[in-house]
């Protein structure tokens, strides 16, 4: 079970990282060859793993986008559960600084960021 949770977590993390680094793909370009722009090149990368495959990683791209992620094993009812936490930071095309923090564990994915939509307040009545 741990291996599948780890694989799912790492796969999700890599997919999110790819989206941040490469950005949205226009429909016409989705089927053609792609090369990363010079601004999306990774200029700084650090990663640490222990014998249990717990980890911490950070990378930064030339355009200033930063991704940090860590995975820690915690006891669960069916064995160890990978708990992830991290953040993404990048500048949107309109110039806004986008900052997303998240946790992901056996209760799901929990993103937090000022740019995320929120539900309207409940009306009493």
TrEMBL record:
InterPro entries for the chain: CHIT_BIND_RR_consensus (IPR031311), Cuticle_Struct_Prot (IPR050468), Insect_cuticle (IPR000618)
Keyword terms, alphabetized: Cuticle, Signal
Lineage: Eukaryota, Metazoa, Ecdysozoa, Arthropoda, Hexapoda
GO cellular component term of the entry, any: chitin-based extracellular matrix
Top-level taxon: Eukaryota
Designated name of the protein: Larval cuticle protein LCP-17
Molecular function in Gene Ontology: structural constituent of chitin-based larval cuticle
Keyword Signal: yes
Annotated region (Disordered), positions in chain: 68-88
Signal peptide annotation: 1-29
Record flagged with keyword Signal: yes
